[in-house]
Design goal:
- The complex is a heterodimer of chains A (155) and B (66).
- With 155 residues, chain A is mainly α.
- Chain A is 61% helix and 12% strand.
- Chain A folds into two domains: 86 residues, no CATH class; 66 residues, no CATH class.
- Chain A is built from four helices and two strands.
- The longest helix of chain A is centred in the C-terminal third of the chain and has 29 residues.
- Chain B has a two-stranded antiparallel ribbon.
- Helices cover 56% and strands 6% of the residues of chain B.
- By secondary structure, chain B is mostly helical.
- The relative contact order of chain B is 0.23.
- The chains are: A mainly alpha (155), B mainly alpha (66).
Chain lengths: 155, 66
Amino acid sequence: MSDKLLLPNAYKPIGWGLLIPATIVGLMLILSDFDELGLKMKVFAIFNNELTGPGRWFSVIKTDIVNTIVGILFIVGAMFVGFSKEKKEDEFISKIRLKSLLWAVWVNYVLLILGFLLVYNMAFLNVMMYNMFTVLIIFITRFNYILYKNNKTES
Amino acid sequence: MKNTIKVERAIKNLTQEELANKVSVSRQTINAMEANKYVPSTVLALKIARVFNKHAEEIFLLEEND
């Protein structure tokens, strides 16, 4: 993988520092059924559509921004963790990285197809929500698992 | 492809870590090559041969199904 597409190793701990709290708050949001924490703010929306009423383009609206913040922190954190160089990023590590990424895309879309086949109506919103993050989660898990496996098998 | 890195390493009395540092790769890479789980690039193969003062063909050997 071209080095230009990877962040310096120093971003990795920063990534974990964002990813872990974002995951905890995200899980709390899911468990509380997205009870609004009351962090309302005025934001600019290219497109906004309330459950009732027509969609509106280019408007300033007042809305709960907890999801926005947690979602962005999770993605930035996961990108930092997944796409920062290892301490010694060499050809073998790059190969594991690319293979893990391919593996993650395969698994992710097999799961998504199962979601399409088995989950319907409003419940499918959940599938879509999880699917926004699963590629990154599966990739990070797989990549670190393979690294760990290769680390410990010194004979 | 198989290789004799482990044997050469024992002769030179190098650890995986030391060899890894000499050729600027991670220890996992040496480990994976010794376990025949990774075929190195030509550059890395030549670097390893140079550490052991041998020709690459003496360390890296083709197998039947290659």
